[in-house]
Amino acid sequence: MTRHLGRAARLALGGLFAACVLTGSAQAQTPPASALPPIEGAIGMVDQPCPPGSFGRSAALKALAATLAGAAAPDPAVAAAYAKEGPERDRLAAWSAKNDFANLCLYRADDARLEKQGGVRVVFLGDSITELWGAADPGFFSDQLVNRGISGQTSSQLLLRFEQDVVALKPRTVHILIGTNDVAGNNGPERPEDLKNNLRAMVAVAKAHRIRVVLGAIPPASVISWKPSLHPAGQIRELNVWIAGFAKAEGEGFVDYGPVLSTPEGGMKPALSRDGVHPLKAGYDLMEPIAAAAVK
Question: Are residues 206 and 225 in the same domain?
Answer without folding.
Answer: yes
